Amino acid sequence: MKLHLGCGNIIKQGYVNVDAVQLPGVDVVADLNKFPWPFEDSSCEVIELHHLLEHLPDVFKAMEEMYRIAAPGGKVIITVPYWNSIDYATDPSHVHQFSQHSLNYFDDRTAAGKERPYYSKARFHIEHIDYITTFNFKTYIPVKNKLGKKLLAAFAYFFNNIIHQLTFYLKAVK
Prior knowledge:
Helix content: 10-25%
Number of helices: 4
CATH architecture: 3-Layer(aba) Sandwich
Structural class: alpha/beta
CATH superfamily: Vaccinia Virus protein VP39
Number of strands: 8
Order of helices and strands: EEEEHEHHEEHE
C-alpha cells in the first residue's frame, strides 16, 4: 500500500489519500493526532507527507507510527518547511520547526541517533535530503548536489528564507 498522509486537496493516484477532513478524493478520514493510526503493522511500501509533520504536536509518536506501519525497507518521504523560512513563519498552525538535522535522532548512523537512541525505537536510514529554495517565491527549486546544499546551509545559518523546505527520503530499518 502507498499512503499520502495529510493530503488535503492534493489527491495522488495509486495512493490511499488520508486527511482529517472529508474532502473530494480523500479515501480515509483520520485524526493523525490520535494513536494508533488506522493502518496495519508493516503494511505500507511508501508513506508520503508533505507539510504535515510540522502541524503534529508529537513528532516522536508520529515517527513511531510511520515506523510501525512501514514495511521493512519501506520508503517514507517527508517535506517540511525550513525553520527560518517564510514558509514556516507565515502559518500559525505550525508547532514544530525543522532543520536538515532534525530527523537524525531516528538514524543510528548519525551522531544524534547514536548518542540518544532512547528518544525513540523508530529507526530509519536517511537516504538523502533535498534542500528546496526559490528565487521568486512561486517556483520551488530542489537542490540535490553536496556543494549546493553546503552553500545553502551556510547562507541559511546567517540569513532567513534561503532554504524554504526540506524533503527527507527515509528507509524503514526493521
